[in-house]
Amino acid sequence: MPKTAVVILNWNGKKFLEKFLPLVVEHTGRPGVDVVVADNASTDDSMTFLQARFPRLMTVRNARNEGFASGYDLALQEIQRRAEAGGETYKYFVLLNSDIEVTPGWIEPVIGVMEADPAIAAAQPKLLSWHDKRRFEYAGAAGGFMDKLGYPFCRGRIFDTAESDHGQYDDPCQLLWATGAALFVRADLYLEHGGLDPDFFAHMEEIDFCWRMRNLGYKVVYEPGSVIYHVGGGTLPKSSAAKTYLNFRNNLSLLCKNLPEKELKKVFFARFFLDYLAAFVFLIKGERGNFKAVFRARRDFRKNKARDLEKRKALKQRRELTGLFDGSILWQYHVKGKRRFSQLDAGRFLKDR
Asked: H helices of the chain, where?
């Protein structure tokens, strides 16, 4: 096994470490693979638990809660620095959420496909729900895609409709994005190209990273030979106004950074109306916190748009629509009633040239 670090970012997650870390250690520990817990300045007794139960486990302590993106960036830089000090380097990083139950042999299939194809920058396993192990999980399911207006969806999950797993997505395939809940990445590419964008803090940072990798000509793939189970919503539940804010703000930022120039104006014109429509739908449903979160997200995106445009200029990459669904997933889902990925027209996914 090539040298690999499986890194769990923890923030006040002792209950998840107690429940799931023993299985990660049991099913991952082998020569060449290190399990690491990176702590984001937890205020619970997570670190006391680790020292008592797993005293030999590698740990990294961030000085403050850096969020998901910067927390991982700092931790992975430190892990690679330690490896280099010992005369080695990690070839792969696996960013693994603390609320995931892994299965025996979960790591080998994904590393295997990445070893076989150096053009693969990132990959993910099959992600099923821990609460219902026959159903795909929201955060990544069988791999991520996006429509031309910036709405993400997955094989096995469109908006809030998660499919049961009947083996219908057991074929490996290329993706637009791989889930940050269990993100396999080449360490050199991650570090060379800035990793996750720290300004995202949390949510959609993995989409931005994967899209940047695709725009550089690399592949992002799904490997169904590896299966894991995700609790989901461990830090912020789906109904959280904070999550709504981050999703809307970060979605606009990743579009600003990665869309082709000719698409920017028309996509942002459409999103102006669609985002405010979403806000008023929240209001009609009595979700005032989410209603306000959309307005705050758009305000803060406008405030930081110049920063995103500077990042866009700095990115030395092609910008093509390959991997995107050539249409509106909102229209497909709400108007045409297509709730399953398999119902979408495969010919409308823009192919690599």
From this structure: 14-28, 46-53, 67-85, 108-116, 187-192, 205-215, 241-258, 261-284, 288-314, 329-330
